[in-house]
Amino acid sequence: MPYSGTRWLESYKCYDLLYTYWQALLGYFTLEAFEHSGDPERARIRDLLNDKRLQALAGFLVYNLNFFNTFNAKYQSKKLLAHKLWRDTETFVHDVGSNYVNPVALPEITSDVFCIAESRRELSQIIVGEKCDRVMEGMPADDKKWVLEYAEQFYVTAITEMRKRLFIHRNLFERLIFMEPRVALGEDRSFDNIRYVCENHLTFLDAEATRLEWERLPQSFTRDQIVEYSDLDAEDFWKIIMNLKENDVVQYPKLIELSAAISCIPHSNAEPERSFSDVNEVRDPLGNQTGIELLNARCFLRSYVHAYPEKDAIHFVPNAEHFALFNKDMYTRFHSDD
Q1: Which domain of life is it from (predicted)?
Q2: How far is residue 251's CA from residue 243's CA, in Å, rounded to a whole number?
Q3: What is the largest CA-CA distance in the chain?
């Protein structure tokens, strides 16, 4: 598997495979070093694999990168997740920090008063994972200390950077909890978070009109529906709200505007990067004279097919009107002027 230093997902898989096949790799390079005694590179790799400290570190990284891998993988999704980012980030920091921070100080790990130097465990109490512990059994004290000191350095760097870069302090993302169906339909339905968002970020929204809609929202559902909808994903729930109409007029226009604006908040850079990669499917170098209108039509068609896979080219049934569009002038209006 090719290794990339910039992708956590690949790093975890690489270290997991390395640890799993460590003994097989050691046996292979021992034989290679014997059969090619004149090649120092094979001997060097054999010697590295013979170092129990490095095997222990591989086990340690498998244990810890799994936290990063799980968090990263979740936020590769295209689903609406911005409202979960703050809570999941706090959980992520606590999960990693619990391996190094003493239990008394752990509740303060996301607070402004937290000091990592005063909150650490004793070196011998640092948690390094079962795989690392298994390799360190019977290891000389100096080697074990070397591994634990590496683990300590890893935790200090990881916790410091997470506190600096992630959304663990009070901000917009903490306020988005109202997007959760269980909150929108629950008994504790405070309007404070929505008011904050409207007044500080979505100033185009009328906070008072939004409040009135928010207060009467549960009245549109029966008790059984409230129980059922509370378990839905936020995206599915707000689609239901968008479809609530009376005399063909939406019942909650301000809440729909609010949810649509929140849906536009990117929860990671995965989707923008994915969009840049998709450009090659819409416009290639051979079609550099393609006009904007045709490119827009391609983007729309691509998005439509992804949203409704049952209506793709295989299942689509054309009619006479569709066939009439295929004529000698069909591309004329799409060519760019230049």
Answers
A1: Eukaryota
A2: 9
A3: 86
